[in-house]
Amino acid sequence: MILRLVVRTAALAVAATAVVFAATELLPGDAGQLRTPGRASAQDIARERERLGLDRPAAVRYLDWLYGVVRGDLGRSLSGGRPVAALFAERLPATAVLAAAALAVTALLTAAALGVTYLRGGRGGSAATGLAAVPQPVHAAVLGVVFAGLLGWLPAVSLLPPGASPLTEPEVLVLPALTLALPSAAFATALLRGALGDALRRPHVTDARLRGLPAPLVLRRHVLPFLYVPALQVTALLAGGLVAGTALVETVFGYPGTGQLLVSAVAVRDVPVVQAAALLPAVVLLLGMLTADLAAHRAASAPRVTKGAVTAVPRNVGGGL
Amino acid sequence: MTPRTVPAPAEATRRRTPPVAAGAVRRAVPVAAAVVLLVCVPLGRYAAPHPPERTVAAPWAPPGGEHLLGTDALGRDVLSRVLAGGTHLLTVSLLTAAAAVVCGTALGLTAGWTGGRTAHAVRALCDLLLAVPALVLALVLAVALPGTTAVVVAAVLSGAPLTARIVTAQCAHLRDSGHVLAAVERGERTSAVLVHEVMPALRRLVAADAGLRLVTALQIAAALAVLGLGPQPPTPDWALMLSENLPGAALNPMALLAPAIPLAGCAWMIAAAARAAARTPGETG
After folding, report:
1. What are the angstrom distances between the C-alpha of A40 and each of A44, A46, A49, A56, B226?
2. What is its main location (chain B) (predicted)?
3. Which of A15, A24, A314 is closest, CB to CB, to B144?
4. Which residue of A12, A121, A152 is in closest CB contact with B128?
């Protein structure tokens, strides 16, 4: 079973590379045409294509690229000619810090919102689903107006001086991380609220209450175990979405990470960079899913937890790009 | 209500159930509001007091006077741009959501009804398409396609699988229900069974799902517009205005808030309508 899950994840990862490669293959005028000036002769274009290896069939180029990706060779950027792997190594720490900060804030906000839901007896209002539906640029704009415009507490643009790390200048992290965390927390709350409500309505919880157990003990021993697996599943979904969301947030706030790299590469049609930058969120999503599935598998085979604890979380909330 | 005093489930359900009529009205309000909004937004352009693409005053003029919401970086009237700026976003999102729901429902009905190998193939296809986050897929497609096309293709490719999943599950469940079995035994054609027996039972589910697909499409369209891959300046567009006016957050905050409010309002109302549609009659949830 565990082996099957791992094999499935590996197959999906390969599938993700195929999707990404196929999407960039749609480019009507290929890179050979784009990299040469407008009045280049057909011969020049052909020579450029040959130089870039674009004259080979798509399947061969895909396998060649995939073999490179597996070895960690992501090709060279079409603009500038630097190795894509080096470009990434430069920017990955900034994005990792941002995503981790956003995930931490998301966890705090979600825990608080679920606490409120718990106090209301497992019922929730429409705020979470509504907030999760609001497009991320709106969150960015409103946070920008409040913190950078009206209060003037934070920089509206999160530029980092060269060589500086977001860990030494934490104030540049605040707006991007909050923008990522607000809709994520709303999304997580909306998804987990159902699981919390279900857990609270289980007969053994009512029984524990009627036996007069103190509420914190009921919560810890009889309710929370049912939230463990759904919470992991939601975290996996969120991790992929957060890394994808950095593309928007980093560009809006000018934060120098891999998301910004992806967007700027799309603008100049730098295909090798786009391919690599697109694989990153996909891999994070798949690894997160694998972790959640393995945890669900463990919970299902543990004798103490009943089968009902391992229900899949439905993705019935708009949002979570 | 504190958790300690939660009544037994049966009692709780009975007490919270309102009269049927009240429930119906409650469910209808968000749906009606969303529909009214979708009709009004395209008409906004004609209510604009100034030409939305022309410079009419000094840049970053504060709200008040002739320009109710002030002006933006190029001295264009913010109110006029907001009134004119929602059509593209909503049209794209509506078309995309409709396409995603139709494709997803067709896939889901096929898989759920046929079962076996077809269902496996459909599930594998769905997993494959969901392996890449929607926003990233849209960005990758935007390398080759025009921004709007990329939004539509990406949102359909990553929305249809989600619809297909829930329709498959529900359809497989319905296939064994009494009224469907009866229709099959009567010798009705499969297409007739699907259209007359299965689809009506899926109506609520698909309607709620359509709302969620609409929300996602709106988010992707807004994100790509902000990244400069949607409508190009000087076209008035809510999402584009958000990125254009961010530098003036301190000078004229209304230039940012004015497009943010209708955009958020649309998304919020669509989500509320989807929630209302998903609710079974009599349940207040």
Report:
1. 6, 10, 12, 21, 34
2. membrane
3. A24
4. A12
Q: CB A200 to CB B6 under 8 A?
A: yes
Backbone angles phi, psi at B67, to 5 degrees: -105, 100
Helix (H) or strand (E) holding A186: helix A171-200
Range scoring the smallest mean pLDDT among A174-188, A291-305, B128-142: A291-305
> Torsion angle, CA of B247/B252/B257/B262, rounded to 10 degrees?
-110
Write the pLDDT tens digit of every residue in A150-163.
Answer: 777 776 666 666 66
The phi, psi pair for B206, rounded to 5°, reads: -70, -35
Q: Are A310 and A198 within 8 A, CB to CB?
A: no
Contact in structure between B268 and B30 (CB atoms under 8 Å) = no
- The residue of A266, A268, A271, A290 whose CB has the most chain B CBs within 10 angstroms, and thus the best one to mutate to test that interface, is A266
Query: What is the CATH T-level fold of the domain A86-318, as seen in this structure?
Result: MetI-like fold (1.10.3720)
Check if B92 contacts A (Cβ < 8 Å).
no
- Select the residue of A134, A156, A281 nearest B268 (Cβ to Cβ): A134
Residue A46 burial by Cβ neighbours in a 10 Å radius (0-12, 13-18, 19+): middle
Strand partners, B71: B77
Q: Map tokens 């939004």 to a residue.
A: B151
Supply φ then ψ for residue B76, to 5 degrees: -95, 150
pLDDT band at B3 (very low <50, low <70, confident <90, very high): very low
- How far is the C-alpha of A216 from the C-alpha of A224, rounded, in Å? 10
Q: Are A251 and A140 in contact (CB under 8 A)?
A: no
Q: State the SS3 of A231-249.
A: HHHHHHHHHHHHHHHHHHH
Q: Copy the structure tokens of residue B265.
A: 């309002």
Query: Mean of the pLDDT values across residues B215-240?
Result: 91
- Residue scoring higher pLDDT (A161 or B273): B273
pLDDT of residue A181: 94
Which H helix or E strand runs over B25? helix B20-43
B143 reaches A (C-beta below 8 A): yes
CB A319 within 8 A of CB A236: no
Burial zone of B265 (CB within 10 Å; 0-12 exposed, 13-18 middle, 19+ buried) = middle
User: CA-to-CA distance for A25 and A17, rounded, in angstroms?
Assistant: 12
Q: Do B129 and A19 touch (CB under 8 A)?
A: yes
Residues of chain B contacting A216 with CB distance shorter than 8 Å? none
Instruction: Examine the pLDDT at B8 and tell me if it is beyond 70.
Output: no
Cα A121 from Cα B285, distance rounded (Å): 12
Give strand pairing partners of B76.
B55
Contacts of B246 in chain A (CB under 8 A): 140-141, 144, 156, 252
Domains of chain B, by residue range, sit at 76-278
Q: How many CB pairs under 8 A join A and B?
A: 219
pLDDT at position A1 is 78
Check: CATH 1.10.3720.10 for B76-278?
Answer: yes
